[in-house]
Design a protein that fits this description.
CATH topology of the largest domain: Rossmann fold
Strand content: 15-25%
Shape: globular
Number of strands: 12
Radius of gyration: 19 Å
Number of helices: 12
CATH superfamily of the largest domain: Thiamin diphosphate (ThDP)-binding fold, Pyr/PP domains
Number of domains: 2
Order of helices and strands: HEHEHEHHEHEHEEEHEEHEHEHH
Length: about 325
């Protein structure tokens, strides 16, 4: 599947996804979209033209998940849309029991990962969703870094083997080129001194960090890990095999996040490489403020990341 087949580069991630889902739903009446009273401009046409395939479950996330599980058991193809923190925390028991235990083919779409809803505070921050969702049995976890990839992910609804969680950021992000979703990742740039693994919009930060390292004489490339769980094992192993050192950078609390995923993978595959995890210190997870400031205070901004990697390499 070519994620760049349709040009969604001028719209937000969620709009790219819903615009593509609308086209799919018009052809497939089994597709049903559920929302917890959470809207988007791109949903207006869906709601107006496909009223029989749209359910506003109101602010009752647990009930919405159970409804979606029942629909899946009845042969429908439910897509559940909510703010990521509410979807992964408020309804966690229902996601585990009603969806994962039953192997229900439900697509969960969470918007606002990491500090995307920065000034709304910890209730709206999704800084643990990778750790939570990848721990659930049978749950596929996807994390696109741009709108064209998010749009292409709507096509996953055709042959969903089980539950899936799609984590979207807010806003528009520049395209990074073609991506084969079946590979689950793409390698950007060249250089084996350091390989930086990132996901979601932090891939763009990783690319800026890699460029800064190259300017200082360190050969560096970036792995954009789009399918987090289960990772594409052979592709990820090949991307890391020649690395002298590995760095992960993420807008997540350190325990169980992307860095933990990569550490587990390297241990399982016998890839013994020095690993630096740039993530949010759990003691500093809960905060208010603009996203850029939160990154800077946690060493996840460009200067902070480059400084931390340089100090680590100098040890």
């Amino acid at each position: 599947m070519n994620a760049a087949a349709t040009d969604f580069s001028t719209v937000d991630m969620r709009d790219a996804f819903f615009l593509r889902l609308y086209d799919i739903a018009r052809q497939d009446p089994a597709v049903v979209l559920l929302s917890n009273d959470f809207g988007a401009p791109s949903l207006d046409r869906f709601r107006a033209d496909l009223a029989g395939q749209f359910v506003n479950a109101a602010i009752s996330e647990q009930n919405m998940i159970s409804m979606a599980a029942g629909m899946a058991m009845a042969g429908r193809k439910p897509v559940v849309y909510s703010i990521a923190s509410f979807l992964t925390l408020r309804a966690l028991e229902q996601v585990k029991v009603d969806i994962c235990v039953m192997g229900a083919k439900v697509m969960l779409v969470g918007v606002g990962c990491g500090y995307a809803y920065s000034v709304d505070g910890p209730t709206h921050h999704a800084t643990e969703d990778i750790a939570i969702m990848r721990a659930l049995s049978g749950m596929a976890v996807w994390s696109p870094s741009e709108s064209p990839v998010a749009g292409a992910m709507a096509d996953l609804i055709h042959d969903l083997p089980g539950p899936a969680y799609l984590r979207f950021d807010r806003g528009r992000w520049p395209s990074l080129g073609e991506l084969d979703l079946e590979r689950g990742l793409r390698v950007l740039g060249s250089g084996d001194d350091v390989v930086i693994v990132a996901t979601g919009i932090m891939t763009h930060r990783a690319l800026a960090v890699a460029e800064a390292l190259r300017q200082s004489g360190t050969a560096c490339r970036v792995v954009d890990l789009v399918r987090l769980s289960p990772p594409a094992r052979s592709e990820l192993a090949a991307a890391l095999a020649a690395a002298g050192r590995v760095v992960t950078i993420e807008e997540q609390a350190a325990p169980g996040g992307l860095g933990g995923l990569v550490a587990e993978f390297m241990a399982d595959e016998g890839l013994l490489r020095p690993l630096l995890r740039l993530a949010i210190d759990p003691a500093k997870v809960f905060a208010y403020g603009e996203r850029d400031r939160l990154h800077r205070d946690r060493g996840l901004d460009l200067d902070g990341a480059v400084t931390r990697i340089g100090a680590w390499m100098g040890r």
